[in-house]
Amino acid sequence: MLHKDIVLTGDRPTGPLHLGHLVGLLQQRVVLQNVYKQYVMIADIQALTDNVENPEKIRSNVLEVMLDYVAVGIDPAKTTFFIQSMIPEIAELTVLYLNLVTVNRLRRNPTVKTEIQQKGYEETVTAGFLMYPISQTADITIVKGTKVPVGDDQLPVIEQGNEIVRSFNRIYGPVFPEIQALLSSTPRLPGTDGKAKMSKSMGNAIFLSDSANVVAQKVMSMYTDPGHIHVADPGTVEGNVVFMYLDIFDPNKDEVTQLKEHYQRGGLGDVTIKRRLITLLDGLLSPIRKKRLEYAQDMAHVKQILLAGTQSVQEVAAHTMREVRVSMKLDY
Ligand code: TRP
Predict the structure, then answer these.
(1) Together in a domain, 121 and 242
(2) Which residue among 61, 198, 207, 257 is least crowded, i.e. fewest CB within 10 A of its CB?
(3) Whether this model's pTM surpasses 0.90
(4) Which residues contact 219 (CB under 8 A, 6 or more apart)?
(5) What's the gap in Å between 279 CA and the centre of ligand 1?
(6) How confident is the model over 189-222, as pLDDT tens digits?
(7) Tens digit of pLDDT for each residue in 64-79?
């Protein structure tokens, strides 16, 4: 390991991973694992905070997400994978952190506030959902994580995490390092319908596990410019999902600029730009799809990777909790 920094990141296993995750996976986790000690956690407990009544859904997606991870090139020889629910110390640490955060502070967290609105939880939000930033801080600090690759929507969660770390260290002694968020340089990918965020629950996602045909269908039904009816009509590029994807995935920036000009002038059809995007995505996704299918032949092995990583985190977590108990005078 070149650095003593520790990277921790994770996902809620609410569905297989999609194109919106891919850039972060490739530009961050696949790269960071060569430089740092990296943990990737499957956040099944956090997933239950907004899927209380769907334990089956979470359960069945844990190994789907593992397949996505290994298929994109997160390497089990370099990265330690683990599952949140098998580290009870995370829950224990969460309880200890609860006293360091006010309920008002939780209510004001912009990430949580937005999610509460999106999910229509205003009057019905559970204590578990409201306090997920605390449990996420425990996820990170249980391995003494110092760097966390996240989307910009998660920045307030990291900020709140650092408030907890500082309070803890001030009151009980210096146990935890501060956490640094690592932002991806790529803008967030919109859904195929043009909505701000790609997500399984909004039905606007292209999954890494989608077949070539399904990807092609989804691109063909992408939101473009509703006023662009005939090929000869001038079209709008802003908010046009196909161009937003080309901006992110097409390595040939000059050609994309030319295509945009042509589209704005008129004379360039949606089908032409969609075909281009399909070819690009196929090039990107087909090696991932192939590797995913290979791993899927032996699910026992995939599960074994997850369990082996989890076992090694159990040791780290027990060590951290011993330190926490000593510093909090709970070491009877
Ligand atoms: N909240 C993150 C998400 O929804 C998932 C997550 C859980 C996470 N624990 C984490 C991310 C710890 C980074 C670090 O995407």
Answers:
(1) no
(2) 257
(3) yes
(4) 192, 206, 242, 274, 277, 278, 281
(5) 32
(6) 999 999 878 988 889 999 999 999 999 999 999 9
(7) 999 999 999 999 999 9
